[in-house]
Amino acid sequence: MSAVQGRERPVVLVADDDPDILQLIAFRLERAGYEVVQATDGEQALQLATELHPDLAVLDVMMPKLTGYDVTRRIRADDATKRMPVILLTARVQEADVQRGFEAGADDYLRKPFSPQELRARVQAILGRR
What we know:
The protein is built from 5 helices and 5 strands, in the order βαβαβαβαβα. By secondary structure, it is an alpha/beta fold. It has a 5-stranded parallel beta sheet, with helices on both faces. β1, α1 (19-31) and β2 form a beta-alpha-beta unit. The longest helix has 13 residues, at 19-31. The chain is globular, with a radius of gyration of 13 Å. The N and C termini lie close together (11 Å).
């Protein structure tokens, strides 16, 4: 059973300020059998992570209000969410950016442009280990 009380399907939080990318990811993950909750900025993502305790979060790095790095650090600092896997999905592709993502606590880092199939495979791999 999902970490979200009363739900049978794993719940994935997807946060991105680009509505096209947000819809693409949600569509692909829903077709793969996941329940998806969506956020359009970092503050909303953190709120949903704290309230819903999804099974996994896919976060854009460059979002309004809080970056994906900030959200990841706050997820890791909260006892209720610190074990939630986080995948950072971003156009920030420099080695220092990737290192910063892992230092913030990310479990995986995927560069844009990305393959929706690869993202789905990474989500499945991470959730399959839990």
